[in-house]
Fold NAD-dependent epimerase/dehydratase.
Amino acid sequence: MKAFVTGANGFTGSHLVKLLQQQGYSVKGLVRSSSNLSRLDKCNIELIQGDITDRAALRKGMEDVDRVFHTAAYVELGLVDEVQMERVNVEGTRAVLEVAKEMGVSKLVYCSTIGIFGDSQGEMIDETFQRRQKNFSSAYDRTKYQAQQLVDHLAAEGLPVVSVMPSGIFGVDDPHFAPVIELFLKGRLWFWIGGERLTGIVHVDDVAQAMILAAQKGGNGEYYILSAGELSTREMLKILATETGMAMPREVPEPLVRFLGNLLDPIGQLFSWNPPISRERVHYIYDRCVRVKADKAGQQLGWQPRSVKEVLLEFIEKLA
């Protein structure tokens, strides 16, 4: 079997490449000429250089392959380049879909996000949930929603495409959660915010496994939510503290965090800097709550993710 992976050098993409190879696939991967390829060290992969909107590169990648996995995305909150994010997330997805249709690809798996459902205000939802939020919480929220609309439209026209919707993707090399957990394990995380914030958790290797299962068993046009469960930030830190004997960091009061978000936003705009606390990040921490169930992936794909606690214990094993 042959597979083509967009965003092959990224966090999710690189783990997918390695798992595909373990399962006997021959893999091509789309990377930019400026990409850091360290995640692909020791991988036997044919690299296709090009931007995600480069249709010639996409055609080369999709030539003579059985499966296409679209993981490339611009993932960031706060003060971002919205034009660039739309180009990557929306126009890039449009290019992947249209070239896949042109090349007659037998199955395309799109890595979406639970964010496409919008703020469910704490309601536990599944794949049948209809988005109620009229506006968008971020440029990322908007562009991934727009990309999903393109996927759904092409699926309705007959393109064999399946969408997976991961919650928070964790792994010891992830760029978002891992640096914070590593600080904690080194005793250098003195303060934290948003202790009550709920985060859906899924291991990156389990996301990769679900994508392969979706390619094998997923129905065309179907959605599959991927989550092993959820924990509050406080609960996550308590597990890590209990297992390591580390002291819990102090929680910064919510009013102060909101004040800092309002203060740092204009400073960031003035100096073209994305601050660690901004109005958008504060909104995600305190106001927005998307809770999901992943029963369908288990029932239809046979997906069996590791537990939330196992995901967290891996950080202790490999980073402590």
